[in-house]
Structures are given as structure tokens and as C-alpha cells.
């Protein structure tokens, strides 16, 4: 399975790059056939490796599915209302870095990942995903920005009752995360972040800074988003014997 590449000559327009990379960006959903014909889109993912693996956020697929109503995670690819569903099995999870790798029995189009070294602040990026779901069909949206900072990942908490085990682990051993000068929305969770020049995946969107309630992420976005560096995807894949 060959990877999709755009080239490193910087001559391709952003339009060309988006047309190519979006073939590897998929919706991640839950299919409950006994309750609905169509899957419910819950996030974004992207295809890697031999074309059978999908990377997304752990929090996107952390829900325990019901066996009574035969719920399954699916990857959705295609465009508009012409959408194909690929059933997924969770292969590996990394709750601390908010990452998960799932596998499909069918093959899709993989994208090339960048080398695991960190990018510097000022690097131009774009990310593609499904920020507002798929009410009218599967239409990926792209946002453009830059890496504003490379800083430790610390989620401030108002009180000790809000400290989870994962958060405590982060506070003890903070890792570097990208702060992006670009607006992501809830459905962008799991979206691949691309280097503007090489079009290789350098990170995975995992959260957006919200100054008010959860609804403010849509009505009054802060314009500050965060992404997990791709080196943690490499580490998770290696742990489970997945070749990227």
C-alpha cells in the first residue's frame, strides 16, 4: 500500500494539497443498526500504515459500547451522502496522550506521517476534519494557522475534585504539546494536523481552549487549539507492532 504524498517543492497550492490529503481523513462514528440506519459521527480520524489503521483521540472512542444493541465503531469515508462505513476494532489506546489506534478489515487510503521530531513555533499548518458533524453529509472542512507555541500540556482545574488520574499523571510528567493559532471545534477531535509545506501529518488535534461553557466552543470559539505531536502516535503503534 503506497502512501499519499503531495511533494516537498512548496509549489502545490493549498487547494491541491487539501484535495489529496482529505482522501485519508475519515469520520469516526458509532453505528447502532437496531436504532438507526446511519452511524452517528462523533469525531475525526486519519488512515495510516497499510491502509487498515485509523488514528483518532482516545476520548472519541472511550465510550463503552452496548453489546445488547450491537453498537460498533466505524470509519466513514466518501463525500456528501455517498459514504462508506468500515467497522473498526480498537487495537491500542494511550489515555495520557489522548490517542487511539483502530483497525478495519477493509483498506482505505493511508497518509504519510512526518518524522517524530518536534516542529518549532511559527511552523505553518492546516488541519482537516468534521468540525460540526455530518447532518447534511460527509463534508470535510480545513482550517489554516500556525504553531503558536510548543509548551507543556497542563489542564488547569478549578478544584481538586476535578483532577482525574490521567490529569494527575500529566501534572507529574508533563509532555510538550502544540498550541495552534487556529480554531478547532468539537468534531475536530482526532483531526490530522499537516505541515503546510510537506503535507505530512505532524500532530493530532485533541482539544480547544474554551473560556466559558461547553457550548461556547461553537458560539464563541477562542481561536486557540491544541494538538498532540505525532511522535506519540509512533510510540503507540510500536507498542502494538504496527508499522507506520
Given as residue ranges, the uncertain stretches (5+ residues, pLDDT < 50) are: 156-163, 210-220
* Integer tally of domains: 2
Choose one word for the global shape.
globular
State the helical fraction: 10-25%
Number of helices: 4
Question: What is the name of the CATH topology of the largest domain?
Answer: Thrombin, subunit H
What is the second-level CATH architecture of the largest domain? Beta Barrel
Strand portion: 35-45%
CATH-assigned homologous superfamily of the largest domain? Trypsin-like serine proteases
Strand order of the largest sheet: 1-2-3-6-5-4
Sheet/helix structural class: mainly beta
Query: Separation of termini?
Result: 11 Å
Mean pLDDT: 83
Under CATH at level 1, the class of the largest domain stands as Mainly Beta
As a whole number of angstroms, the C-alpha radius of gyration is 17 Å
Give helix and strand order, one letter per element, not per position. Answer: HEEEEEEEEHEEEHEH
* Count of beta strands: 12
Largest sheet: 6 strands, antiparallel, barrel
InterPro entries: Chloro_Bact_Ser_Proteases, Peptidase_S1_PA, Peptidase_S1_PA_chymotrypsin
Family: Belongs to the peptidase S1C family.
GO biological process, one term: proteolysis
Protein name: Serine protease
Structural features, described:
This protein is mainly beta and 244 residues long. It folds into 2 domains: 14-112, Trypsin-like serine proteases (Thrombin, subunit H); 124-230, Beta Barrel (Thrombin, subunit H). 12% of the residues lie in helices and 36% in strands. It has 4 helices and 12 strands; from the N terminus they run αββββββββαβββαβα. The protein has helices spanning 14-21, 165-172, 216-219, 231-239; strands at 25-31, 40-48, 53-56, 72-79, 82-94, 99-104, 124-129, 141-152, 176-180, 192-195, 201-208, 225-229. The strands form 2 sheets. The protein has a 6-stranded antiparallel barrel. Strands 7-8-9-12-11-10 form a 6-stranded antiparallel barrel. A hairpin with a 4-residue loop joins strand 2 and strand 3. The protein is globular and about 50 Å long. It starts with 13 loop residues before the first helix and ends in a 5-residue tail after the last helix. The model is unreliable at 156-163 and 210-220 (pLDDT under 50). Keywords: Hydrolase, Protease. Belongs to the peptidase S1C family. One of its GO terms (biological process) is proteolysis. This is Serine protease. InterPro entries: Chloro_Bact_Ser_Proteases, Peptidase_S1_PA, Peptidase_S1_PA_chymotrypsin.
Amino acid at each position: 500500500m503506497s502512501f499519499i504524498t503531495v511533494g516537498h517543492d512548496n509549489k502545490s497550492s493549498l487547494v491541491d494539497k487539501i484535495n489529496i490529503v482529505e482522501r485519508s481523513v475519515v469520520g469516526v462514528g458509532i453505528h447502532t443498526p437496531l436504532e438507526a440506519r446511519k452511524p452517528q459521527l462523533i469525531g475525526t480520524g486519519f488512515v495510516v500504515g497499510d491502509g487498515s489503521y485509523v488514528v483518532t483521540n482516545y476520548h472519541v472512542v472511550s465510550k463503552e459500547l452496548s453489546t445488547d444493541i450491537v453498537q460498533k465503531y466505524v470509519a466513514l469515508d466518501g463525500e456528501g451522502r455517498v459514504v462508506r462505513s468500515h467497522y473498526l476494532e480498537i487495537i491500542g489506546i494511550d489515555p495520557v496522550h489522548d490517542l487511539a489506534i483502530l483497525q478495519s478489515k477493509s483498506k482505505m487510503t493511508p497518509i504519510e506521517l512526518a518524522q517524530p521530531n518536534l516542529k518549532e513555533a511559527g511552523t505553518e499548518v492546516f488541519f482537516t476534519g468534521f468540525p460540526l458533524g455530518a447532518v447534511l453529509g460527509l463534508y470535510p472542512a480545513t482550517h489554516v494557522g500556525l504553531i503558536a507555541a510548543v509548551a507543556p500540556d497542563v489542564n488547569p482545574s478549578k478544584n481538586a475534585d476535578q483532577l482525574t488520574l490521567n490529569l494527575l499523571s500529566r501534572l507529574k510528567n508533563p509532555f510538550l504539546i502544540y498550541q495552534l493559532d487556529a480554531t478547532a471545534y468539537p468534531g475536530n477531535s482526532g483531526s490530522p494536523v499537516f505541515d503546510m509545506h510537506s503535507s505530512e501529518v505532524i500532530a493530532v488535534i485533541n482539544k480547544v481552549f474554551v473560556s466559558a461553557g461547553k457550548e461556547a466552543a461553537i458560539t464563541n470559539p477562542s481561536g486557540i487549539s491544541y494538538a498532540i505531536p505525532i511522535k506519540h502516535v509512533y510510540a503507540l503503534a510500536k507498542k502494538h507492532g504496527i508499522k507506520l
